[in-house]
Design goal:
The protein is mainly alpha-helical and 528 residues long. It has a domain of 102 residues. It is 66% helix and 1% strand. It starts with a helix and ends with a helix.
């Protein structure tokens, strides 16, 4: 069977749709979609015309160069196993900037189809994840990451934000069907709720930035002075409200008065001796963790309440029960002695056995608890100089280590495959007080490019981000600016492009929105 233009177009749309639905649902669909697009692009022919279009577009050439520098940097790499693995993961950086812009421009209905497929996949998985959340949320060892059923919860949170933007864009451009517009707004509202259920701080911050963009974008189109005033008030007050919210949590975290060491009791109710570490002021719900400790009574009474040994780690994080018990008792305002242990309920004991270190985590608001955890991590870092195992503060160590590597390889970088080995060597060189389990990479995509490709490679990547805003009308659309905020903000604290899902999400939508929306604009102008 000889494929004609219609067949090729259907294969093109099927490939795009497979990638779109695969992002929230299946890596296999992403891969199959990429293969379909690649094969169809080649057998469709007319490669000479496509090549001319390629070399005439600085944006396309720059986007492709981000992948090509991975190949060039093989010259000075030493870990080829990791280098070739990295090349395989980064293939979307080459595939989508070639296949999408060099194919026949998408029509409006085709663009809506692809975006709708993606948004539908995100909505479907959000319902499945919410169902999973209500099934396991009462489990003391509940981990919010587990409700992201098909991919990394951070990448998924970014998808939720992009789908939220797509639905708002659909609603904005729906002029004739009130029911459809209301449905889009309702679904966008649901995703706003869901991003908080997902409890990804990266996702929450991205959602807040997108919503703030929406307010600014809306302000430009409002004609009513009353609505303009309301919107301008919201734009002004939102950052202040967020800062006030954080300030209130910080204020509540710390006690109003410093302890008077001379007034600390030395004997327990049972006659035991209290230990007080007056050099460590780490807190839990406003109470000092390292005051009023009787290890003898803790051990004796814990044996009566639980079969788990006090000094061993029962949970997946391998934290000793002792550390968890001490924090949990403190969080309830109890002393670390026989009276404190006997004051625990059976639910408290089960929570401690499951590694829950604060009573608020058994009932509190998820966002409040997440903010509390971040404050606690910073307090721990300042008081004990410890960041190990703390998802936010240990990033400072990752960044510091990465910057030290960058300073030694600032011009050309370490090469495509050597970043892992470079990190391990630098951890050893600086005697970093962090175990191998937590010795991770940059958690900053810009720093990762600087380490791997030096200042030259980082400049190429940054130029690929900036150039479209100066040369392409589509880059200044609401949808693309929203996408850019989500992805480029995430790269400040995540290695967004170091996984198949992350790099596909970026490469696919970056090109689709740049060239798809551009095609829509040209189409509307040509028919007007």
């Amino acid at each position: 069977m000889i494929l004609n233009e219609v067949h090729h177009r259907w294969l093109f749309l099927i490939g795009l749709s497979l990638v779109a639905i695969g992002l929230p649902l299946s890596k296999a669909f992403m891969s199959i979609g990429g293969i379909v697009l690649s094969i169809n692009f080649l057998i469709e022919g007319d490669l000479k015309t496509k090549f001319k279009k390629l070399i005439s577009s600085p944006v396309i050439l720059l986007l492709i160069s981000v992948f090509l520098m991975h190949i060039v940097a093989l010259i000075w790499t030493s870990d080829f196993a990791h280098a070739f693995k990295d090349l395989r993961v980064k293939l979307p950086l080459l595939l989508f900037p070639i296949v999408i812009p060099l194919s026949k421009p998408l029509l409006k209905k085709e663009m809506l189809l692809v975006l709708g497929v993606f948004a539908s996949g995100v909505i479907l998985t959000s319902f499945l994840s919410t169902y999973e959340y209500f099934q396991i949320k009462d489990n003391p060892s509940f981990d919010f990451r587990s409700i992201s059923l098909f991919t990394s919860h951070i990448r998924y949170a970014l998808m939720v934000c992009i789908a939220y933007l797509i639905l708002l864009n659909f609603a904005w451009n729906e002029k004739n069907n009130t029911v459809a517009r209301a449905s889009y707004i309702l679904l966008a509202f649901w995703l706003s709720v869901f991003v908080f259920i997902l409890q990804s701080m990266t996702g929450v911050v991205a959602w807040l930035l997108c919503s703030y963009l929406l307010l600014i974008y809306t302000l430009a189109y409002l004609k009513s002075n009353v609505f303009r005033l309301i919107t301008l008030t919201a734009i002004t007050s939102t950052p202040l409200l967020i800062l006030a919210y954080i300030a209130l949590h910080v204020d509540a975290f710390y006690p109003d008065h410093q302890p008077d060491f001379s007034q600390l009791e030395t004997r327990t109710t049972a006659g035991g001796i209290y230990e007080h570490d007056t050099t460590n002021f780490t807190l839990e719900n406003g109470y000092y963790i390292n005051f009023y400790i009787s290890n003898f009574e803790l051990e004796q009474e814990w044996k009566k309440r639980s079969e788990l040994p006090l000094w061993e780690g029962p949970n997946s994080e391998e934290k000793p029960v002792y550390a968890t018990l001490k924090r949990y008792l403190t969080s309830k305002g109890l002393r670390k002695d026989s009276v404190g242990v006997n004051s625990l309920t059976e639910e408290d004991v089960r929570a401690i056995e499951n590694g829950v270190a604060n009573v608020r985590f058994t009932y509190g608001n998820p966002i409040d608890n997440r903010v509390y955890t971040v404050i606690w991590e910073f307090d721990r870092m300042m008081n004990e100089k410890r960041v190990q195992g703390h998802s936010v503060t240990q990033r400072f160590l990752f960044w510091k280590t990465g910057f030290n590597i960058f300073k030694e390889n600032w011009l050309l970088g370490t090469g495509t495959g050597d970043i892992n080995a470079s990190y391990e060597n630098m951890y050893n060189k600086t005697n970093a007080e962090i175990s191998k389990k937590f010795r991770k990479r940059t958690h900053n995509q810009y720093l990762a490019f600087g380490i791997t490709f030096g200042i030259i490679g980082l400049a190429i990547f940054l130029l690929s981000i900036i150039l479209p805003f100066f040369t392409m009308k589509s880059a200044n659309s609401f949808l693309y600016i929203g996408f850019a905020i989500v992805l480029y903000a995430s790269m400040l604290n995540e290695d967004t492009l170091e996984t198949q899902t992350g790099v596909t999400l970026y490469a696919f939508f970056n090109v689709l929105l740049l060239f798809g929306i551009q095609a829509l604009t040209e189409e509307s102008e040509s028919t007007s």
